[in-house]
Design brief:
CATH topology: TIM Barrel
Structural class: alpha/beta
Strand order of the largest sheet: 1-2-3-4
Mean pLDDT: 97
Radius of gyration: 15 Å
Number of strands: 4
Distance between the termini: 31 Å
Number of helices: 5
């Protein structure tokens, strides 16, 4: 239905969650819709690999960027987040995927860092 009404991109699922999810996204890809089929992933190689397993043509890579999430959720520095984002974007690009790089908790992220993060998605 989404394809029929002209939706250009469909985020079909999170393949790393289960083999059932991999199969579900793969079955949507096999429909050969006009829409681009995207899988959602954290900025982690197992997540990206799971999307690749589905043959989706696009990936949404997400990671938290606000200082509060970096400290309490991820335990990472800003530099580590930038490194993870960069390496996963490059890895996904090397495998031919269209990339959407997403900032989790962007509204609480300082704008200069958010801008620096966004540059990593190019």
């Amino acid at each position: 239905l989404l394809d029929e009404i002209g939706v250009q991109q469909i985020e079909a699922g999170t393949p790393v969650m289960s083999e059932h999810e991999v199969k579900a996204v793969s079955s949507i890809v096999k429909e050969k819709l006009d829409a681009s089929i995207m899988g959602w992933a954290r900025a982690a190689k197992p997540d990206v690999d799971a999307v690749l397993k589905t043959s989706a043509d696009a990936i949404a890579i997400s990671i938290a960027t606000s200082d509060i999430h970096l400290q309490y959720k991820l335990g990472l520095t800003r530099e580590q987040v930038l490194d993870k984002a960069t390496s996963m974007v490059e890895y996904a690009k090397d495998h031919g995927l269209y990339i959407s790089l997403n900032s989790e908790d962007a509204t609480r992220t300082e704008f200069p860092f958010l801008k620096e993060f966004a540059e990593k998605g190019k």
